[in-house]
Design brief:
Layout: H1 3-28, H2 36-43, H3 47-53, H4 57-77, H5 84-97, H6 99-107, H7 112-123, H8 131-149, H9 157-170
Helix pairs in contact: 1-2, 1-6, 4-5, 4-7, 7-8, 8-9
């Protein structure tokens, strides 16, 4: 095995360990209480190892969100679906199957807009949206997640699809 392959493998393992810790930590705490020292201690790495991977916590959060988004995109694209209604359904399924990761992303409050705009861009990848439609649909995605996280279950799948179709056809 070449040395760079070993380093690359260890590099990925460390990132996975950090992500795993981040998900577990954010299940019980908020992002304000996390620190590089705490991550380093719990993941059993040196602080400089953390800084080898990330410039700061913001860099970690963005990388984590991109990791979650990459999984979501791969899941939505696996069947070659281009219709927004179907892509939304795949997003909702992915979100359900990866609840702990999605909850962790949503706890990173200052990055929610980045997350939602990225999700929206992927769901409507094959459609064109006006800025107004985008803002309404981002707000709607946030409401879907608030409903889902609150376990209120006020929104049925048919009402979600119906609202999205209304926005696309009438606004």
């Amino acid at each position: 095995m070449k040395p760079c392959q070993h380093i690359s493998h260890r590099y990925l393992e460390t990132k996975e360990d950090i992500f795993h810790y981040l998900v577990n930590y954010l299940q019980k705490h908020n992002e304000e209480s996390i620190s590089v020292s705490r991550i380093s201690k719990e993941v059993k790495i040196q602080r400089h190892t953390f800084y080898h991977h990330y410039k700061n916590l913001s860099d970690l959060y963005i990388d984590f969100i991109r990791f979650v988004l990459d999984g979501m995109i791969a899941f939505m694209n696996k069947e070659g679906i281009i219709e927004p209604e179907m892509r939304l359904g795949y997003y909702l399924d992915y979100r359900f199957m990866n609840k702990d990761m999605i909850i962790s992303v949503l706890k990173l409050k200052q990055y929610k807009d980045f997350y939602y705009s990225s999700v929206l861009k992927e769901i409507f990848k094959f459609s064109s949206l006006s800025d107004f439609q985008s803002r309404i649909l981002i707000h709607f995605l946030k409401e879907i997640d608030n409903d889902w996280l609150g376990q209120n279950k006020k929104l049925s799948s048919s009402s979600i699809y119906g609202f999205m179709k209304y926005v696309l056809e009438n606004l």
